[in-house]
Amino acid sequence: MSKEQLENVEVFTSSFSSEQQKELANRLITFLSQYSHLSDSFIIEFFSENLWDTLPKTWQAVLQDLSFPQIADLLLDAANNNRRYPSVWPLSLLAFRATAHALTFPREPRCDRGSVAEPKKPEEFLENHSQSSLLGHIFRKHVKPKKQHEIRKLGMLVKQLCEQTGCRRVVDVGSGQGHLTRFLSFGLRLSVTAIEADPTLVAMASRFDGELLWVLEKEKHKKKLRPEALPIPRHVAGWVNPKESWEVFIQQLKSPDHVGDDPVTLCNKKICSDVAHPSRLCGGQSQDLHQNDAEEDPSAGSLNHSAHEEGVSPDESHLQRSNDFVLTGLHACGDLSATLLRLFVSCPHVRGITSVACCYMKITTKESPTPPGLVTAPDLLPSGHESFGYPMSSWVRGLPGHQLSYKAREGACHALEDYVRRLREESELLRSHCYRAMLETFIRDTRPDLHRAGIQTIKKSHLLSFTEYARLGLARVGLPPDLPLDPERVAAMLKHQNKVVVYFSLSLLLAPVVETLVLLDRIIYLQENDVESRLVPLFNPNFSPRNFVLVALKPSR
Ligand SMILES: C[S@@+](CC[C@H](N)C(=O)[O-])C[C@H]1O[C@@H](n2cnc3c(N)ncnc32)[C@H](O)[C@@H]1O
């Protein structure tokens, strides 16, 4: 890892002894248990469950008149050293905020750490908002700016981990449309097998590979360049089963059902030599790394890459015999991140791992073994604590009160920086929680059984009056859109919009604390299995809220 990354990481874990990690888990759980009524609450129930009245009276008094920018400055912005209070705050509220900030892993790399008052866009997007200046155009096609930022940064880290572990092979699990896979293969010339549960996404990934190869082929003709062999990614459609052994996982990767040959037929397994000089494909900071790549032969073995072996030098054949690889998962949702960590621990061939998690609410727990959104066959559900997504470590499992509700974990997926920005801008979008909470009271009056009914986001709701919003919302839950809405009651609730925002901000303060506990549990799990890991805030959190990468490697054999 680079010096910069090492420095960032030291703050988190490498400077923590195993005892300190355990002590931190203890403190997190004690703190979260005390405020679970906040993290477990649903903002849509603000009026129907009188959530404001669940706050201490002393808190209510000082919070109720805060402006939106004051909420950002005084509550959420951990880096603000110049707080100006309009009134004297009770110690319990100051302690709540200070503890939440102190227990949370810092979300910015140390060099960027500052007030969220001035959110910085990654430099790579300063010239063009939608195109990273550091990523070659062929890797930007079909890829949103956020993902461009992620694949470039994670790709470089994976490449570095490969260098440290001596692996040329990477397995990208939950690869989606294959954006990271493509950059790792064609940009960084690693031998990649991608596995993804959704066959539609696998087909798209393969098609996008083909498009990329087609572009390179055209450029090759134009520039009259010599064709050159290239490691073409291999895509496997398959669901990685958390209950299966690592041997089954390896067999799955070798599955003959892969769809990786399509791009090869498009481009006849040969490719323009731009790929041998990726500095032409990628600019800026990435060039140094890429210049090293240009010295290497692009061909490398993979778990079953017989179709791509022409052009492989004899020197490399020993690499192909080796089955070692680095495991990666970019926003491997729900249990998938936990599954990857278990595979890393159990499988001797996995030498390193980079794990970026997301969708913590889809994680299975003993209390919630089938969370909403979990797509799997019932007989494949986890049956024992050894395969639940949380907690993973024996230590955390043994701490009373370690449980994290579905709601607390869902809250941990919120984009705190984005909300702070809205507060500072006094954005009208902040009205949406109040509208939804008001609507909930009318829905429950008519049909109590429809409480917490799912209403898809109503577009541009901040531009609508509440009545217009309610008409659309009522129709979504099957109630008459012209249901009478008492105007006095509507007006009375609208007056409390600030309180809704304050209450939501208090619960949002706990979101990074919950995320810290989930990730710390994984770090302790690795520690219990004799593996040291590091947590890197790799992505810009203003851009990519789930920005932590858990990195680990095994000692060389
Ligand atoms: C949030 S998406 C991320 C996709 C991609 N890595 C990216 O960053 O664009 C997570 C992906 O993991 C896949 N997935 C979830 N559980 C899986 C499993 N057990 N085995 C294989 N794929 C899985 C989902 O289908 C989904 O495409």
Automatic annotation (TrEMBL):
<dbReference type="InterPro" id="IPR052220">
    <property type="entry name" value="METTL25"/>
</dbReference>
<feature type="region of interest" description="Disordered">
    <location>
        <begin position="283"/>
        <end position="318"/>
    </location>
</feature>
<dbReference type="InterPro" id="IPR020596">
    <property type="entry name" value="rRNA_Ade_Mease_Trfase_CS"/>
</dbReference>
<dbReference type="GO" id="GO:0000179">
    <property type="term" value="F:rRNA (adenine-N6,N6-)-dimethyltransferase activity"/>
</dbReference>
<dbReference type="InterPro" id="IPR025714">
    <property type="entry name" value="Methyltranfer_dom"/>
</dbReference>
<feature type="compositionally biased region" description="Basic and acidic residues">
    <location>
        <begin position="306"/>
        <end position="318"/>
    </location>
</feature>
<keyword id="KW-0489">Methyltransferase</keyword>
<dbReference type="InterPro" id="IPR029063">
    <property type="entry name" value="SAM-dependent_MTases_sf"/>
</dbReference>
<feature type="domain" description="Methyltransferase">
    <location>
        <begin position="146"/>
        <end position="365"/>
    </location>
</feature>
<dbReference type="Pfam" id="PF13679">
    <property type="entry name" value="Methyltransf_32"/>
</dbReference>
<keyword id="KW-0808">Transferase</keyword>
<protein>
    <submittedName>
        <fullName>Ribosomal RNA adenine dimethylase domain containing 1</fullName>
    </submittedName>
</protein>
